[in-house]
């Protein structure tokens, strides 16, 4: 019993040390990440069920014509970030909206450095209807 308690204390100390560790990023790494984000769109899938980034990435890769370097990052609550290698591809996708996925609207907005990713940004969707 004493060995088990000592082991648990050792594990807790290791976790605390790991949590207190400071990570340092080089300016070049930060700038490179910002440049990648500048070629990304933030999207909210307006759905009543959860979708995975893998499912969305596979489908949109085909729908958006096999974009080179395309990838999707999940931010939770059906909020995703779509990365593009080419600004031309990103603009084509952005201008081609609104998009739908499995009969749900995928609302896209351009990533902005000064604007945190927030699902409240997606409360209104402009659409055009022909009568």
Automatic annotation (TrEMBL):
Start and end residues of each DUF4283 domain: 34-114
Organism field: Arachis hypogaea (Peanut)
Pfam family membership, one: DUF4283
Protein name as it appears in the record: DUF4283 domain-containing protein
PANTHER family associated with the record: GLYCINE-RICH CELL WALL STRUCTURAL PROTEIN 1.8-LIKE, OS09G0268800 PROTEIN
InterPro entries per record: At4g02000-like (IPR040256), DUF4283 (IPR025558)
């Amino acid at each position: 019993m004493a060995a088990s308690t000592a082991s648990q204390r050792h594990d807790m100390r290791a976790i605390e040390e790991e949590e207190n560790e400071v990570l340092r990023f080089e300016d070049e790494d930060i700038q490179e990440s910002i440049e990648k984000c500048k070629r990304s769109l933030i999207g909210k899938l307006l759905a009543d069920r959860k979708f995975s980034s893998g499912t969305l990435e596979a489908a949109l890769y085909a729908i958006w014509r096999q974009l080179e370097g395309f990838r999707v990052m999940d931010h939770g609550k059906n909020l995703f970030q779509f990365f593009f290698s080419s600004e031309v591809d990103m603009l084509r996708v952005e201008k081609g909206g609104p998009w739908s996925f499995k009969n749900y609207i995928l609302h896209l907005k351009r990533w902005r450095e000064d604007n945190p990713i927030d699902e409240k940004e997606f409360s209104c969707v402009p659409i055009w209807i022909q009568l």
